[in-house]
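Tokens for chain A. Residues wanted.
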């Protein structure tokens, strides 16, 4: 079990986080990705755009055959919106299972940890990537942090504005959306390597954990499934879209 009172986390704890992350991807991300991919078998799940679908097919394959149109529909869904949405939806569970030793009991806070760079306890909301919040999310986060500040005053806790943070799992600070930049005016937003460095005390941990997830990726080969779905869609397109 993680004990967050060390200057840096030891190798045993780092390995525990990495193995938990790998197991999480095997049991939560991969099966759900396969399920979402299976849903692409039905042409009805796509909102066909007869003005653009042939163009997109030609752009990526050089022709407007039914199979090319199917590829233009499936590829963005399977390797873009689908997997990104799954990861975002599973983020809270990732925190509770992979980062269980940092779990927070404070309302509106995902994890708490001793910042390994400044030694202060941080109250952290976690987000997936640099473009994964909207205007309403900004207000929600600010309100959650205001609640923590009020609680701190009531209970005489030493919580400063810079101790209420947003941790972004991946990306770079120069990629932050305008919504994050607005949030930064009031609270720190730590992104990718810096977030994981502050959490663990190891400057290279971001690379280690993303490489570990990459190892899980090599265990999964969805080429046959994707090709089968493209073939099925192509037949449906020939029947209802080409003619």
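Reply:
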């Amino acid at each position: 079990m993680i004990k967050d009172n060390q200057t840096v986390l030891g190798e045993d704890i780092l390995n525990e986080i990495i193995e938990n992350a790998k197991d999480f991807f095997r049991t939560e991300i991969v099966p759900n990705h396969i399920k979402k991919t299976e849903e692409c078998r039905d042409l009805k799940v796509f909102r066909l755009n007869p003005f653009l679908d042939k163009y997109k097919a030609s752009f990526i394959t050089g022709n407007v055959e039914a199979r090319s149109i199917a590829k233009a529909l499936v590829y963005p869904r399977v390797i873009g919106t689908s997997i990104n949405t799954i990861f975002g939806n599973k983020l809270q569970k990732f925190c509770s299972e992979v980062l269980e030793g940092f779990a927070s009991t404070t309302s509106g806070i995902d994890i708490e940890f001793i910042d390994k760079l400044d030694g202060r306890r941080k109250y952290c909301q976690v987000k997936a990537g640099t473009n994964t919040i909207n205007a309403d999310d900004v207000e929600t986060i600010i309100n959650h942090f205001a609640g923590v500040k009020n609680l701190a005053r009531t209970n005489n806790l030493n919580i400063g504005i810079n101790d209420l943070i947003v941790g972004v799992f991946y990306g770079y600070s120069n990629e932050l959306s305008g919504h994050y930049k607005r949030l930064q005016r009031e609270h720190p937003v730590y992104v990718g390597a810096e977030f994981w460095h502050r959490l663990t005390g190891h400057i290279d941990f971001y690379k280690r954990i993303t490489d570990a997830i990459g190892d899980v990726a090599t265990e999964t080969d969805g080429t046959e499934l994707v090709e089968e779905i493209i073939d099925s869609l192509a037949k449906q397109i020939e029947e209802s879209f080409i003619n």
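The first strand starts at residue 111 and ends at 114. The chain has a mean pLDDT of 92.
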